[in-house]
Amino acid sequence: MISEAETSATTPLLRVKALKASYDESIILRGIDMAVRPNSVVALLGRNGVGKTSLLRSIMGLMPKTEGEITFEGKSIASLRSDQRARLGLGYVPQGRDIFPNLTVQENLEVSMSISGEAGRERLEEVYELFPVVKDMLTRKGGVLSGGQQQQLAIGRAILTNPKLLILDEPTEGIQPSIIDQIEDAIHLLKKQGNLSIILVEQYLDFAKSASDEFYILDRGSVVLTGESEELTSEVIGQHLTV
Predict the structure, then answer these.
(1) Which residues are CB-contacts of 145 (< 8 A; sequence separation ≥ 6)?
(2) Is residue 184 domain-resident?
(3) Which of 6, 149, 187, 203 could be stapled to 145 by a disulfide with Cβ–Cβ 3.0 to 4.6 Å?
């Protein structure tokens, strides 16, 4: 007999089925199928303009027109607003970070904690341990931080919403190698805790391969290849990902 724990481990946390999305008259996603298992990191890869960010926005309920099925913990979320999805446990760090530049670092963090309440406050020390610079710069305005510091703040804010699924869109874009290493370490530590899954959109392929368990490659709005991250060979990269 299969135990309840074994069943929950094999049932996807997030499942996307036959997802289509369009913007104005342009078809962006063409029937995407995707699954994210509990306690896993999934890399979403592809050349620029193939639909990666649109897929994330569709999962979060931010695309204006979508068709298909999106389930989270076995329940459909397709009709829910983005804020309702966030309250269910979807955390999103968009490309460009989207912090509040005129608020201090502390005020940025408090916005997230006001949403998640005590559960978020209990994770504040965890954020400080993952990203010490966030604690060091509590009184500074978000807008004066470097790009890497803003990214750490953005990820920290998302963690304080106490997500079950953390969605990161290009977290290494435009930041220095030492901070990229810190973000990779943070991903490994978050996964090690055993209560969080991550979707990672990334152009830095070595980082994506090292940080993730599985990958999906998109091209022209469709999934063209999926597999274990160790299967991301130079041949696969050359065929699907190099410009």
Answers:
(1) 105, 137, 153
(2) no
(3) 149
